[in-house]
Write a structure and sequence with these properties.
The chain is α+β, with helices and mostly antiparallel strands. It is built from one helix and four strands; from the N terminus they run αββββ. It folds into two domains: about 1-35; about 40-75, no CATH class. Strands 2-1-4-3 form a four-stranded antiparallel β-sheet, with no helix packed on it. A hairpin with a 6-residue loop joins β1 and β2. The protein is rod-shaped. It binds zinc ion (ZN).
Length: about 80
């Protein structure tokens, strides 16, 4: 099988351009999707007064200093 120099040059060029185009599409779509904002709840301990935040979405969270369970002040 004899491969002409034109095909020998353009076929790898074509695949390289397709790869660049596909990665451009991938990264441009990936940048458009924003990450969800990481919201945290703020707690104030009723027994020791320690103020702390927790990223987990829970109504009650244990105090880091004394271990008492406290309700969230706000989201
Ligand atoms: Zn506490």
């Amino acid at each position: 099988m004899i491969v002409s120099p034109t095909i020998f040059f353009f076929v790898p060029l074509f695949f390289a351009l397709v790869a660049i185009f596909a990665s451009w599409l991938y990264y441009s779509f990936r940048m458009r999707v924003p990450l969800p904002p990481r919201r945290s709840r703020i707690y104030r301990c009723a027994s020791c007064g320690h103020v702390y935040a927790d990223h987990r979405d829970r109504p009650l969270c244990r105090c880091l200093k004394c271990g008492a369970m406290n309700e969230a002040l706000r989201r």
